[in-house]
Design brief:
The chain is mostly beta strands and 404 residues long. The chain has 2 domains: 176 residues, Lipocalin; 219 residues, Thrombin, subunit H, CATH 2.40.10.120. Helices cover 13% and strands 39% of the residues. It contains 7 helices and 20 strands. The strands form 3 sheets. An 8-stranded antiparallel barrel has the order 1-2-3-4-5-6-7-8. Strand 12 and strand 13 form a beta hairpin. The N and C termini lie far apart (55 Å).
Amino acid sequence: MKKINVIILACWITTMPSFFAQEVLAQRNNSTKLSKWEYYDGTEQSIRKYFDDNLKELDPIEGVFTLSHTVYDSYGSLIDQKDNIHTIAIVKDKISLTREFIEINLQQGNFPKYAITAEFTKSSNGRIYLSKQFSQDRTSSNENFVWDNELGMLVSEKTEYYKGNKFTIKRYYLKIYPKANPITKSKANSKSHGTCFAISKEGYFLTNFHVIENGGNVSIFLKHNLEVKEFKADVVLKDEINDIAVLKIADKDFTNYENIPYRLIENSKIGENIFTMGYPISNIMGENLKYTNGSISALSGIKDDIRFYQISAPIQPGNSGGPLFNINGDIIGITTAKLNSQAVGIEIQNVNYAIKAIYINNVLKMLPFIPEILFPEREKNQNSEQNLVESLSKYIGIIICENK
């Protein structure tokens, strides 16, 4: 019965309006209801002009945002994901004394255009915002958001129950305008987050070039001798065109691996089952390794770019540079990007890309040694499916680059 209920909820979610009707996100004990919608006295053009004219005085959450959400069942499995499904603006409220900021709907759809669809108040610690969210029937519910200054993102997490089953709903407000705030986001203090994985016993790792492209100090965080440790690393090889970088741990405390338990496999087929492991949005979602699976959807990327696989395994910011495995636990690519709905102008769901292993191979052949994953005589990974993910985890790290 439990499995049936999960399927029912998944179907129910996917048939709902694209804004993911907010009664799903709301608490069931709504106590207030608007008699009618309140509207913002202005246009999107006037809102953007306000941001431009007051850039240095803006609160971090003031701006134009795209909204996304993910839904997980009680086992932590992803059952629904929608990216860039709506656009709103958050501005300081200069009229009411009971709220600091208001959310304004910028698109005609399930909510009237320019309707005020939420209210925000900053907490004492400055990162948490208390919010009153209005649903389509104008009932309200309370929801707390956390502001992440490095990612320019508001994030909330709520638990809901449907048919006796527990579900976790995460919502993301990604700031798209203004592009930079000199007061709240200093480039000198910003950091790039990504994932990397070992290619040799001696501490050589692969990641994406775009994770380290701004230079600065690079650190790799690994499970090492049963605890997570930080190791300083150097960039030893860069392939900007194919978005690949090779790193070398330069820390004397690093102990060499006994072996590298995977090979580099170049030939994969459409429909082949795959999985990836990494650290998406680690400063929000946590520093435990995240696993997602799927299949190869296409043997080419955007505009039939042959360097990439299109994959259905969900990836997020922070997955960049992570390993793409086949079902045997061997490397077939590097996860690198997802297709952005905002960029193409239509709603896109779960279209992700990974650089093919053949391009990794070409880069690694430029090194002065032969990485272990290129040894043709290595045996096929013999780990059982149950132990495979756990056995691979210590070879996959978080990479943080302090941008110059």
